[in-house]
Amino acid sequence: TVGTFSSNVVAADSVGDDSGLPLRGVIEAVPGALPLTVVVEDLNAPGTGAWIHDTVNVPAVGGLPQLSDIAVAQAEGGSWTRDGQTFLQVSPAHITNPDGSIHTYFEAYGVRPGTGYEVELRLTEADAAERIWRLEPDDLAFRLQFTSEMPGDIGRHHLRLDLSDTEPGEYVLAVHIQDENTGAYSLPSVTDVFVAER
User: What is the pLDDT of residues 29-66, one digit of tens each?
Assistant: First the structure.
């Protein structure tokens, strides 16, 4: 066990029917995959509540460039933030808006400050996920490439993606970066995205 968050109590009348509960905590963990389970218990009805189990990627500092997990949201202005400047309404559903747009946020590490790095995002159907980096650009549902410069220890990226030309269905979104000086690639960060019917 890496750690346990202290329990927080939220009054039921302070949470709207469609609201979420922002949970924050700080733990230390070694780089790599970290299993994470969150349990919410209803103190008004003992023994009831909900839980979710997921895995987060703890980046290593130094060596090859590294990427955080990709946060996905339908809209800005929520309570979730990593940098205190970008606030998103993050949802585990990862569903696009009716207009086909979706917000993403991820961070880059392990590139020297002031150094440029190439960012590439790719989207493909879920059944082609294992081949996403071998597919030709024309075979992808969506592709975005750009150059960024590491402003300090962390490169922060908030992107609003326009997937309006993408057919509805289940997709995989992957991103990786390449250090321009060393040519070293990061391992990709990958998440599911569901393009809604329009």
Answer: 776 788 888 888 887 888 888 888 888 777 665 578 99
Rg (CA), the chain: 18
pLDDT digits (tens, 9 = 90+) for 165-177: 999 999 999 999 9
CA dihedral 139, 180, 105, 163 (to 10 degrees): -20
Please report, for residues 60, 95, 118, 167, 193, the alpha-carbon distance to residue 100 in angstroms, rounded to integers and kept in the order given: 34, 9, 25, 10, 11
67, 189 contact by CB (below 8 A)? yes
Per the confidence metrics, is the pTM higher than 0.85?
A: no
**Tokens describing residue 173:** 């979104």
Angle at 175 between CA 198 and CA 90, to 5 degrees: 55
Q: Are 175 and 120 in contact (CB under 8 A)?
A: yes
**What are 120's strand-pairing partners?**
145, 176
Query: What are the DSSP calls for the chain, one per residue?
Result: ----PPP----GGGS-TT------------SEEEEEEEEEEETTSTTEEEEEEEEEEEPPSSSS-EE-PPEEEEEEEEEE-SSSS--EEE-TT-BPPTTSEEEEEEEEESS-TT-EEEEEEEEEEGGGGGGTTTS-GGGSSEEEEEEEE--SS-EEEEEEEE-TTSPSEEEEEEEEEEETTT-PBPPPEEEEEEEPP-
